[in-house]
Amino acid sequence: DHEGVSLNLAVANMGIIVFQHFTKINTFSWAKIRKISFKRKRFLIKLHPEGYGFYKDTVEFFFEGRNECKNFWKKCVENHGFFRCTVVKRVMRQKTRVLSRGSSF
């Protein structure tokens, strides 16, 4: 984080989890996260405001390199898209039996 403390981040079905020395110290649930982004080595979590009190709306973490940060951001986007999906879209396919090769599944 910005204070130089060594932390581990994990992405899960409920959100992003923060660990310090194998101890869970915080969880950012998908419902509370407004936006996730990365810029170079910085991973940013923007949160929804909670009431009218003082809050920190952006949490910042630093990674060893840009590629590590981007890969973690990708995993977060994939998990968020999968676990927050409420509607399954069915795709209707045109069945053409004339030149059909392979499985129709």
What does this structure look like?
Residues 1-87 form the FERM domain. Pfam families: FERM_C. GO terms for molecular function: guanyl-nucleotide exchange factor activity. This is FERM domain-containing protein. The protein contains one helix and six strands. The chain has 105 residues and is an alpha+beta fold.
Helical segment count: 1
Shape: elongated
- Helical fraction equals 10-25%
Distance between the termini: 47 Å
Secondary structure class reads alpha+beta
Q: What portion of residues belong to β-strands?
A: 25-35%
**CATH architectural category:** Roll
**How would a crystallographer describe the biggest sheet?**
3 strands, antiparallel
Protein name: FERM domain-containing protein
GO molecular function, one term: guanyl-nucleotide exchange factor activity
Domain FERM: 1-87
Organism: Bracon brevicornis
